[in-house]
Amino acid sequence: MTPVEAGAPGVPHRRRSGRVRVSGRDDAAAGMSGTGLSAAELGAGLGERATLVQFSSVFCAPCRATRRVLGEVAAMVPGVAHVEIDAEARLDLVRALGILKTPTVLVLDAHGREVRRAAGQPRRADVIAALGEAV
Predict the structure, then answer these.
(1) Cα separation of 1 and 119, whole Å?
(2) I need a labelling partner for 103 at 20 to 30 A (CA). Which of 62, 67, 76, 125 fits?
(3) Cα–Cα distance between 99 and 28 in angstroms, integer?
(4) Can you give 38-70 as a three-state secondary structure string?
């Protein structure tokens, strides 16, 4: 019997990893104000139109690839900023936002509200599509 047939743990995780999805979270329940994340909370300025927030860790190989993809998309789309946050250094924010793994990418609108979220390495096309909803 294969691990998939046996229902091995982690199989559904791999199917979802990197997919950009609607966050579906209640901002108030997450401990965020209705106005979203501020530049002070992020430690960097928000983009004029949208912000790509990446939670990373030092020894995370997919984080490096995600950094490259998000940097390219941010450079390609006017008014979009890319902010990378060291998850270990910002455990308060990680806990408040329910970040469970790195890389995790949040797509924020111009007001800092979470529009989309991806856990794992996202594809460039998915990031661009998610930005379409944020701007």
Answers:
(1) 29
(2) 76
(3) 16
(4) CHHHHCCCCCCCEEEEEEECCCCHHHHHHHHHH
Token digits of residue 30: 């997450």
Tens digits of residue pLDDT in 56-77: 999 999 999 999 999 999 999 9
Distance CA(105)–CA(96), nearest Å, equals 15
Contact criterion met (CB below 8 Å) for 128 and 73: yes
Q: Where are the beta strands (DSSP E) in 7-131?
A: 20-22, 50-56, 80-86, 104-109, 114-119
Largest CA distance in the chain: 52
In sequence order, what are the residues at sequence separation of 6 or more whose Cβ sits closer than 8 angstroms to the Cβ of residue 129?
20
